[in-house]
Every structure is written in C-alpha cells, then in structure tokens.
Design brief:
This protein is mainly α. Among the domains are: 85 residues, no CATH class; 39 residues, no CATH class. The protein is 69% helix and 0% strand. The chain is built from nine helices and no strands. Helix 3 runs antiparallel to helix 5. The N and C termini lie far apart (100 Å).
Length: 179
C-alpha cells in the first residue's frame, strides 16, 4: 500500500508538471516572429518583461494587455508628432505633408554633409582652419567647443540699436543697453 501511495504521488506530480508546462507554452497566441513584425521594440521589451505574469492573467488576457500597451505607445507617438506640427505652426494636414517632406529633405541634406565639406570651407584661411581643427578636437573629446566658428557667408554684424527716447531706457545701465 505504501509503494502504491508513493507511485500515486509521483504520478500526480508528473501530471501537475505537464499541466504547468502546457499552460506555460500556451502563454502567447503569437509566435515570436509574428511579435517582431507586429510591435515596435519598446512593446516587445514590455512583452518579454510581462511574460512571467501571463500565467496569472491567462494567454488571452495577457495578449489583450500587450495590445492595449501597443495602442498606447502608438497614440503617444502620434500625439508627439501632432505637437511637433503645432509647435511649427502647422494647422492642417496638407501643410503637415509639406512639412514632413521638407524635414526629410533637410535631414538627408544634413547627412550628406561630411567633414570634408566643412574642411574645404575653412581651408583658405589658416586661422579659421586652426579654429575648426580645435573645435573638432573638442567635439571628439566630448567637450563643447568654446570658440565660435566664424561665418563664411560674409555677413556683417547688425549695427547697435538706437534706444534714445524709448520708454524705460533710463532704467537700463550701459551694459544692458549694449546687449
């Protein structure tokens, strides 16, 4: 009788192990390949983090949970995009398309610029070349450059403003007037 009881306990433990294994394997309705195509990386990370709690919720509820967070992520991204349009003064979607097109072309143009084009800009003037080299060294070392790079566009600085006769100028000192 004792041997039969031990075998029954062993058999019940095996059944429980199989039940847990089966439940753990059915945690997700989506295989990993579908998950990678379906969600952005942030949601995939959340999915991997929350996977251990899927046993508590069950597979359907867990996938609903992940879907709701994926929707929240998409909504936040869309809100951020609309806020960017609003900050740029865009009020309709036709202008938004133009803005996106111009932004994409500006980004592509920025990527096309290389160090060589910057060097060619300063190569005729040796002092400007030295300033550029020191600025690049500062950038490479992680320090923000202290010396401003002179403009090669040939623009003159604006003349000082004439503040005489304007209300409140008597309260300003000379340095504030200069600024």
């Amino acid at each position: 009788a004792l041997k039969i009881a031990v075998v029954d306990i062993y058999h019940s433990r095996l059944k429980e192990r199989q039940r847990r294994k089966k439940k753990f394997q059915s945690v997700s309705l989506f295989p990993p390949a579908v998950l990678e195509r379906r969600y952005p990386k942030e949601v995939q990370d959340l999915y991997e983090t929350m996977r251990r709690f899927a046993r508590i919720l069950g597979p359907v509820e867990h996938d609903k949970f992940i879907e709701s967070h994926a929707l929240e992520f998409e909504l936040r991204r869309e809100i951020k995009r609309l806020q960017e349009y609003r900050a740029a003064g865009i009020t309709n979607f036709c202008s938004a398309r133009t803005y996106d097109h111009l932004k994409k072309s500006r980004d592509e143009e920025r990527l096309k610029r290389t160090m060589l084009s910057e060097v060619l800009q300063y190569i005729q003037d040796s002092s400007a070349c030295q300033q550029w080299l020191s600025r690049q060294a500062d950038i490479d070392s992680g320090v923000s450059p202290a010396v401003p790079v002179p403009s090669s566009s040939g623009r003159r600085s604006a003349p000082p403003l004439n503040l005489t006769g304007l209300p409140g100028t008597e309260k300003l000192n000379e340095k504030e007037k200069e600024v």
